[in-house]
Amino acid sequence: MNVKTFTVFLCFLLGALIVRADFNPATVIAAAKADPKNAPAIVAAAAAENPAFAIQLVSEAVAALPEQAAAIVRAVLKVLPKRAVEIVRASILAQPRLAPEIAAAAVGTLPDQSAEIVAAAVDAAPADLRTAIAAPTTGGADAGRAAAPSFPAQPVRPDLVSPSS
Fold this sequence. Notes:
Largest sheet: none
């Protein structure tokens, strides 16, 4: 089975799961784990179709796929922006060590709600990570980023000859 057929099959399976009245978040998580490349889209689609299970879906997805945590949070926040505080809090509680990454992804997705998101993230994060969450967002958009080196980083050396010459 090639990747395209597998993806279509997973989308059909996800659609069938969403239509069912007895929605089971575990099946969505299993589908997301089976296709990690499309996991954020799978979780976001299920959360949009079943908002009552959105927090549980995000929490379980972040716990099951920590390497995709930021992407999952971004995708779900795009479809459920009004529940940003709950989504961020549940994500951080599922993977506390990823709190700075999750908070940064959420603030980047919804910059107009940054104050509420940072407050929820700081509240849910472990004590040793709270300053890492609050620090980059207090100094403006570029705070916390390393300064880019000036161009050129090294002086031009006239004694070097191009290989094409």
